[in-house]
């Protein structure tokens, strides 16, 4: 499906829940957020219907995110349904891994092929502080389990000054021995992350170059996203950078998002996007749903709006959008 600016949109991120078992400092406030009520979030059958209709429009890749997708009961059943949807070529998940680790075999059997695991540090105390209580050993066993099962694994790390910035080399060195991509994501100034200080990509790259030697650009395909990858000498895996603020990738954007409440979100930090839940629960048939989606995608904004202050409702926290 082409948007109004000629970009091919084939990737849908679905936030299956706003809830999470962790409270990462850049994502959620310490005491959590008022959860959406059960009836406010899309039922699995509703998500499956949206994906079926969007597959008919050209969506090929679906990623489940959240909140923590595994915090919603039945999530692996959704993985199976989506993996079996005609036209869908891949179903992946972004997860903190803590609830997924023990169920990784089941996830693979359901059709999960790729995992983005959030892992910001290899220091157990720093991990607990940044996630406000998470267990590093559980996250690491999820990583090992996923690799043992042959899933394609990328690690997501958000460098935050004063929380994990002294352990970035150790994190990157996971890609020395393991076939993983370690990706550094620039801190996005949404919600509670506005009070935190990012570590610029140039600084991360300079430090890794000091530690490991000059990297080479890694132009091999790494999935469907906008990251830039490099490979350090002797590494089996690669290191990636996702820097939506300082290095814009909007011109190559291939994605739209479905929030847990059923809003089709066309771009980060932009208001608008149709309320698909209202259509799903009204009398719209699949053709009307497809029409609403096609019209919305045609209006996808040219670029994100992180440099603009939006109203409270739009300054949404990451757990509601799904990253
Ligand atoms: N709970 C899952 C997890 O942590 O992987 C999925 C949802 S989480 C919102 C998705 C991704 O968004 C995570 O990799 C997380 O690091 C990232 N994220 C959350 N808040 C962010 C922020 N303010 N800036 C950049 N990335 C953020
Ligand atoms: Fe939960 Fe993921 Fe947000 Fe951390 S980043 S609080 S694990 S949703």
Could you characterize the architecture of this molecule?
- The protein has 323 residues and is α/β, with parallel strands linked by helices.
- It has one domain: Alpha-Beta Barrel (TIM Barrel).
- The protein is 29% helix and 15% strand.
- The chain is built from eleven helices and eleven strands.
- An eleven-stranded mixed sheet has the order 7-8-9-6-5-4-3-2-1-10-11.
- α2 links the parallel β2 and β3.
- The protein starts with 10 loop residues before the first strand and ends with a helix.
- The structure holds S-adenosylmethionine (SAM) and iron/sulfur cluster (SF4).
- Iron/sulfur cluster binds next to α11.
Instruction: Summarize the biggest pleated sheet.
Output: 11 strands, mixed
What ions, cofactors and ligands are bound? S-adenosylmethionine, iron/sulfur cluster
DSSP, total strands: 11
Structural class: alpha/beta
The side-by-side strand order for the widest beta sheet comes to 7-8-9-6-5-4-3-2-1-10-11
């Amino acid at each position: 499906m082409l948007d109004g600016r000629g970009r091919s949109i084939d990737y849908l991120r679905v936030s299956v829940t706003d809830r999470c078992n962790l409270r990462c400092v850049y994502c959620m406030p310490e005491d959590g957020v008022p959860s959406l009520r059960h009836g406010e979030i899309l039922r699995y059958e509703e998500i499956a219907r949206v994906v079926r209709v969007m597959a008919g429009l050209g969506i090929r890749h679906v990623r489940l995110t959240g909140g923590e997708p595994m915090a919603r009961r039945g999530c692996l059943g959704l993985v199976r349904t989506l993996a079996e949807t005609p036209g869908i070529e891949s179903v992946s998940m972004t997860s903190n891994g803590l609830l997924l680790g023990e169920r990784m075999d089941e996830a693979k059997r359901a059709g999960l092929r790729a995992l983005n695991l959030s892992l910001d540090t290899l220091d157990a105390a720093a991990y607990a502080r940044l996630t406000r209580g998470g267990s590093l050993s559980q996250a690491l066993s999820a990583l090992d389990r996923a690799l043992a099962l042959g899933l394609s694994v990328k690690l997501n790390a958000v460098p935050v000054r004063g929380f994990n910035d002294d352990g970035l080399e150790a994190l990157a060195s996971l890609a020395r021995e393991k076939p993983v991509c370690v990706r550094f994501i620039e801190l996005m100034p949404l919600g509670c992350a506005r009070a935190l200080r990012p570590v610029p990509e140039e600084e991360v790259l300079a430090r890794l170059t000091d530690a490991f030697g000059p990297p080479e650009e890694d132009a091999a395909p790494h999935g469907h996203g906008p990251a830039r990858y490099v490979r350090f000498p002797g590494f089996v895996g690669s290191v990636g950078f996702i820097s939506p603020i300082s290095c814009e990738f909007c011109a190559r954007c291939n994605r739209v998002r479905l929030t847990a409440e059923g809003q089709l979100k066309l771009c980060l930090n932009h208001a608008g996007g149709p309320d698909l839940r209202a259509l799903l629960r009204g009398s719209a048939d699949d053709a009307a749903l497809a029409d609403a989606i096609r019209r919305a995608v045609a209006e996808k904004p040219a670029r994100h709006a992180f440099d603009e202050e939006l109203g409270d409702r739009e300054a949404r926290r990451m757990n509601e959008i799904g990253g």
